[in-house]
């Protein structure tokens, strides 16, 4: 079997130690904050997630940018010159144009390196949902799946990746057009928390609303219990936007009940955090996607 490398984006929101353990490559993504551009790397060398969320809290604004042609080309061509095939698992096409941008680069590189395989697959996932899909794909690669077999596995299982999120600060959902100004004001006043997911087209959807922080976390747990498949054999991911205490609270409930095999707790980075703000909690697991 030819050697190949799994590549993904920094939207994957996996901890650095996990990225190194499963041996995947990360293409960094950029964001602009107060007229300065920063690149988000897994080691947070330019700005830590904590600093990012503190600046958001203090009124700074952030805007994300897509991965451009030249960034893709630099990353992919280096590996192709080393004689490696590439499987790129992209951030959801329902949320970003990065997948489509990658296709343009791949088309050119296939002509220049006809002896190499380079495949881009749409994760239809975001943040720790994308992270869980990539993590499981890396496990399948370790089991010996060839690149074409792994592409087929991803396409068959990407819609079994269940993402459930709740946010603390409604301002950023309002800014992104996910909720109206009136909904944001009422929600903030009454402490109503939206519960969001990612649909079959990889788009963010507002599924329900609950009142209070505790109820919002209970809703995430309820969805895992309702929709999860073979939970005892699963590694799940809990992501948090600079809200480790709440993530640990949810993880401890799951651990005490011995519901899953393992839990990865991860920080939501600035790319996703731009659109959710501080305080988001995400729970991702493999199951039957049920957007109710």
UniProtKB/TrEMBL annotation:
Would you tell me the protein name for this molecule? DegV domain-containing protein
Function of the protein: May bind long-chain fatty acids, such as palmitate, and may play a role in lipid transport or fatty acid metabolism.
- Top-rank taxon, per record: Bacteria
Q: Which organism is it from?
A: Clostridium sulfidigenes
Q: Which UniProt keywords apply?
A: Coiled coil, Lipid-binding
Coiled-coil regions, chain positions = 207-234
Q: Which residues form the signal peptide?
A: none
Under PROSITE patterns, the record lists:
DEGV
Molecular functions per Gene Ontology: lipid binding
């Amino acid at each position: 079997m030819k050697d190949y490398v799994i590549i993904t984006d920094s939207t994957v929101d996996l901890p650095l130690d996990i990225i190194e353990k499963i041996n995947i490559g990360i293409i960094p993504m950029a964001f602009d904050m107060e007229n300065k551009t920063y690149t988000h790397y897994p080691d947070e060398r330019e700005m830590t997630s904590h600093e990012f969320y503190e600046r958001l809290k203090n009124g700074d604004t952030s805007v994300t940018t897509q991965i451009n042609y030249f960034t893709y080309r630099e990353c992919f061509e280096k590996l192709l010159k080393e004689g490696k095939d590439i499987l790129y698992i992209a951030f959801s096409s329902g949320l970003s144009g990065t997948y489509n941008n990658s296709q343009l680069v791949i088309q050119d590189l296939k002509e220049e390196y006809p002896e190499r395989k380079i495949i881009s697959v749409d994760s239809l996932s975001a943040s720790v949902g994308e992270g869980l899909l990539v993590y499981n794909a890396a496990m399948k690669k370790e089991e010996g799946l060839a690149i074409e077999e792994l592409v087929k596995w991803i396409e068959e299982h990407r819609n079994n990746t269940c993402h459930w999120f709740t946010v603390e600060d409604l301002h950023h959902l309002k800014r992104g057009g996910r909720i109206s100004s009136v909904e944001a004001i009422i929600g903030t006043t009454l402490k109503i928390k939206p519960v969001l997911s990612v649909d079959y087209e990889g788009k963010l959807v507002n599924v329900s609303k609950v009142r209070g922080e505790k109820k919002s976390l209970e809703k995430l747990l309820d969805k895992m219990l309702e929709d999860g498949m073979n939970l005892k054999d699963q590694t799940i991911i809990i992501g948090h936007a600079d809200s480790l205490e709440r993530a640990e609270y949810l993880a401890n409930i799951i651990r005490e009940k011995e519901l899953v095999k393992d839990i990865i707790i991860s920080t939501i980075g600035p790319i996703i955090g731009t659109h959710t703000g501080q305080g988001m909690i995400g729970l991702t697991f493999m199951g039957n996607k049920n957007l109710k």
